[in-house]
Amino acid sequence: MAQVFDAVSLDVGGVLVVPDHGRLADVLTSAGVAYDIKRFGVGHYLAMAAMDEAASGPEVFTDYLAGFVAAVGVAQADRLVAHDALLAVLSTSMWCQPVPGSRDGLRALAAAGLRLAVTSNSDGTVADLLRRHEWLQVGEGPGVSVEVVTDSGAVGVAKPDPRVFEATIGALDLPAGRILHIGDGVLYDVHGGAAVGMQVAHMDPFDVCASTDHRHIRTLGEVLDWL
């Protein structure tokens, strides 16, 4: 049976953008660490799986980076050096490499008449990041128009805390069950969104997640098949 919803709430990391591969590579090269840049794409999603497995606290990137450096082929002996080098630069501005297909997918969701929102764990600056890179903005502008950008750094609590999702739900003024939330984390996005009654989808382009208890998508455009 097709999912029926009126609005889509989007996580940012892993759904729209990932950390810039070139900058990550430069940091690892400067640290004298060997890696396989061809693994950087799947590396983000394996890193998120590591966070889910460890039930990491929001915006605590120790498990993320441990998963990432392992995924991209950093030798065991070099992983601590690689972790520390990346941790020093992993700020919001680093998250600017588009997830393949997501710009077109975002525009397609808007063109289909879906109401759009952002619900992200960040540091209070994600709306500015998305506006500057012309992804989206609240109201009119060079990017896709959305109705609200909920940033955990502004709310004061982070996903999976229900208050983050409730801020988006309140701004959209819709029943939670009429909103589809899409994210790349099982703990933060799938479980967090479902706990407040939203429909949920796990962005998993590389089929990293083996769970069968929730929906998966590889690209944003797949959402249109559910309408």
CATH topology of the largest domain: Rossmann fold
| Helix-strand category | alpha/beta
Give me the CATH superfamily of the largest domain: HAD superfamily/HAD-like
Return Rg in Å.
Answer: 17 Å
Sequence of strands across the biggest β-sheet:
7-4-1-8-9-10
Explain what the structure shows.
The chain is α/β, with parallel strands linked by helices and 227 residues long. It folds into 2 domains: 7-16 and 99-226, Rossmann fold; 19-95. The protein is 38% helix and 17% strand. The chain has 9 helices and 10 strands. It has helices at residues 21-30, 40-54, 62-71, 79-87, 102-111, 126-132, 152-155, 162-172, 186-195; strands spanning 7-10, 17-19, 95-98, 115-120, 136-138, 144-146, 148-151, 179-183, 199-203, 216-217. The strands form 3 sheets. Strands 7-4-1-8-9-10 form a 6-stranded parallel β-sheet. Strands 2-3 form a two-stranded antiparallel ribbon. β8 (179-183), α9 (186-195) and β9 form a beta-alpha-beta unit. α2 (40-54) packs across α3 and α3 (62-71) packs across α4. The longest helix has 15 residues, at 40-54. It is globular and about 50 Å long. The protein starts with 6 loop residues before the first strand and ends in a 10-residue tail after the last strand. The model has no long low-confidence stretch (mean pLDDT 95).
Q: Keywords for this structure?
A:
227 residues, 6-stranded parallel beta sheet, alpha/beta, 2 domains, Rossmann fold
Topology:
Elements: E1 7-10, E2 17-19, H1 21-30, H2 40-54, H3 62-71, H4 79-87, E3 95-98, H5 102-111, E4 115-120, H6 126-132, E5 136-138, E6 144-146, E7 148-151, H7 152-155, H8 162-172, E8 179-183, H9 186-195, E9 199-203, E10 216-217
Parallel strand pairs: 1-4, 1-8, 4-7, 5-6, 8-9, 9-10
Antiparallel strand pairs: 2-3
Helix pairs in contact: 2-3, 3-4
